[in-house]
Amino acid sequence: MHIMEGFLPWSWAAFWWLLALPCLALGVYQLNKVLKVDREALPLLGVTGGFVFILSSLKLPSVTGSCSHPTGTGLPTICFGPWITSVICAIVLLFQALFLAHGGLSTMGANIISMGVAGPLIGWGIYRALRDTRVSMFITVFLVCAFADLFTYVVTSLELALAYPAQVGGVGSSFVVFMGIFAITQIPLAIVESFVLVLVFKYIVQLRPGILIRLKVFPEAKIMAARVDA
Amino acid sequence: MLRRYRFEILAIIAILVFCALFVYTSSKMGNAEFAGSDDMGSAQISKITGIPEEQFHPLIGQWVPPSGEIESALFALQAAIGGIAVGWVFGYWKGLKEKG
What we know:
The complex is a heterodimer.
Chain A: H1 10-37, H2 41-55, E1 60-61, E2 66-68, H3 74-80, H4 82-100, H5 108-130, H6 137-163, H7 170-207, H8 209-214, H9 220-229
Antiparallel strand pairs in A: 1-2
Helix pairs in contact in A: 1-4, 1-5, 2-3, 3-4, 3-6, 4-5, 5-6, 6-7
Chain B: H1 6-28, E1 35-36, H2 37-49, H3 68-99
């Protein structure tokens, strides 16, 4: 999902940075607040953020004959919301821009928006819609992780299509072409990632249900029921 | 037993299916390079604009790992940082739980 350094014109790079900055500011503000209220949130942040680090470093082969990496943003989205997730992503993307030449400083705004804001926002929407229903916690986690990952690549495609509309068919046909490169490759990766993250979430529920209850990640009844069941 | 470990089983099956898909595609698609989709995106940009890829210069100067080996070392470092965080926290939580 990285847009390489130099592959966005200045105007678009600045536009996405301008969108990303308020998200990051809100994320930093929320992060301070959460950590002040409950120090036990820090380990949870470590686990969920740690998986973003691990998963976004794994470039996996896909059925399209190309490689791409999962995002891992579903778990922090569920536990902390999209804004704090955008801060985690910004740290990962900065590391990759500085040391790996994956993405870049000028395109980082666009990459933060796709990986750290747009994907997590879709995931957050699914999570909020399902949290208080009878749908299983684990199915909710699965769906959030899968769509946060997939939608990241849909938005990357959109960002590139907006900057580079095709001569025939404009933004729309460009979007379809980029979707073919990014989103199709991503489908199997998103599914595998989600199975793994559901497992991670199960371990968090087993080991430390208290913090999930205090942060109101899921209703207490659901978390306690899952503990007995798992 | 099966119900208790259902998520472990599902994750293993998902990973195995994923590996099988990879073996299948890499044997069927003889010319598949398994290049990064990021690079394919860049190639597509140069196709749409008609500007060769080499003419896209970084807007902000960037250090590029001098070789694929160094790049993969740094990727491994990134995964290790994440792995340490995850392992540390799960160990901490497990210790807390056993202490009561």
